[in-house]
Amino acid sequence: MVIRPLASILGLLLTCSTAQAAEHGVKELSPDHLTIGPGELSVGISQQWQQPLPQVQRALIVIHGRLRNAQTYLHSAEQAAIQAGQLSTTLIVAPQFLNDTDGSRHALPDAVLRWHANDWMAGDPALGPAPLSSYAALDKILERLDDRKRFPALREVVIAGHSGGAQVVQRYALTTQADKALQADGIKVRYVIANPSSYAYFNAQRPIPTFDAANCPGFNTWKYGLKKLPAYAEGQKHRQLEQAYVERDITYLLGAKDTDPNHPALDKSCEAEAQGAFRLERGKNYFEYLTQRHPQGLNQRLVEVPGVGHNGEQMFTSPEGQKALFGE
Predict the structure, then answer these.
(1) SS in 3 state form for the chain?
(2) Residues whose CB is less than 8 angstroms from the CB of residue 160 and which lie 6 or more positions away in sequence, other chains included
(3) Cis-peptide, bond into residue 152, ω within 30° of zero
(4) What is the pLDDT of residues 244-287, one digit of tens each?
(5) For residues 274 and 222, is the Cβ–Cβ distance under 8 A?
(6) 67 close to 166: Cβ distance less than 8 angstroms
(7) Nearest to residue 166, comparing CAs of 46, 72, 101, 251?
(8) CB neighbours (10 Å) of residue 179?
(9) CA atoms within 13 A on the CB side of 257
(10) What phi, psi does 240 have (nearest 5°)?
(11) How far apart are CA 211 and CA 277, in angstroms?
(12) Euclidean distance between CA atoms 66 and 99, whole angstroms
């Protein structure tokens, strides 16, 4: 009889859960859809947005992780908004990036956008019904929010993600230009990046002294670096991408206990290992890397959440999380 430690059992269960979501499709589909050109994106929303919402002052776009459990993240964001006293004036939008296995499990209509495996995390094009980048889908959400007839009091849009969703937010903040239109209309755009497994670096520098690039040829390729950028970022120069990124308002929200180098959902590839041993270390290393490259200062900050590990709801509902999301 083999007796496993409780931590090992919980890790095994999480690994199985993640694998099941990848192989057999998500359990819960978001109930709403946003028409995006030739396709539809599944979304969860806290308020119906077909009609004008004159009370909404902030939109919070929250991005799920590898499990594609958008409704879970919607509920966590709603709980954070309730605790911060901001629910009535906040529209929460939780896009759901479905993949090919979800289509098999739920018999999705042909019009619903879906990606291969986790390709949506890197901004890759959808499998169908059109080759739309997942980042372009986020652009369309921003475009919808930039409608003063529908949202006359909107003053701020916050794009937040935890874990795999934080990887999306970091790369999206690096490549998007869609936030410029909102800012031109007086709508501030902020980004909250919580506990991602990895970041996109701007050059070949990495923080681990023992890292051997010769044994990890993909370490500086997208999504870990800027080589072979996705088609979404085509035509943008690396220097322009970096300058735009460091000017954006970004909070790196890191769990002080997200320190397990063997966490079952941690990216253990050599590309990610070059950035640090665990998520807290990788986040600190990346922020230090940015401050070294831009000593004139950043419009960004690193915030640690005491007592919290790799848990999205605890991160967002913590006092630090509420301040990052709602500025309260």
Answers:
(1) CCCCCHHHHHHHHHHHHHHHHHHHCCCCCCCEEEEECCEEEEEEECCCCCCCCCCCCEEEEEECCCCCCHHHHHHHHHHHHHHCCCCCCEEEEEEECCEHHHHHHHCCCCCECEECCCHHHHCCECCECCCCEHHHHHHHHHHHHCCCCCCCCCCEEEEEEECHHHHHHHHHHHHCCCHHHHHHCCCEEEEEEECCCCCCCCCCCCCCCCCCHHHCCCCCECCCCCECCCHHHCCCCHHHHHHHHHHCEEEEEEECCCCCCCCCCCCCCHHHHCCCCCHHHHHHHHHHHHHHHCCCCCCEEEEEECCCCCCHHHHHHCHHHHHHHHCC
(2) 60, 61, 62, 63, 77, 169, 191, 192, 193, 194, 316, 324, 325
(3) no
(4) 999 999 999 999 999 999 999 999 999 999 999 999 999 999 99
(5) no
(6) no
(7) 251
(8) 23
(9) 9
(10) -70, -40
(11) 12
(12) 10
Q: What is the C-alpha to C-alpha distance for residues 294 and 246, in angstroms, rounded to an integer?
A: 8
Residue 3 has pLDDT above 50, yes or no: no
Rounded Cα distance, 226 and 74, in Å? 31
Q: Which of 135, 115, 260, 296 is nearest to 200 (CA)?
A: 135
Amino acid at 102: D
Calpha distance 105→103 (Å, rounded): 6
pTM for this prediction: 0.92
Torsion of CA 299, 305, 310, 311, to 10 degrees: -100
Summarize pLDDT for 150-198 with one digit per residue, the tens. Answer: 999 999 999 999 999 999 999 999 999 999 999 999 999 999 999 999 9
- Residue 289, C-beta contacts closer than 8 angstroms, at least 6 positions apart: 201, 205, 207
| Tokens 């991408």 -> residue | 241
Joined together, the tokens standing for residue 178 give: 């869609």
**C-alpha distances in Å from residue 227, one per residue of 166, 172, 190, 230, 238:** 20, 16, 26, 9, 9
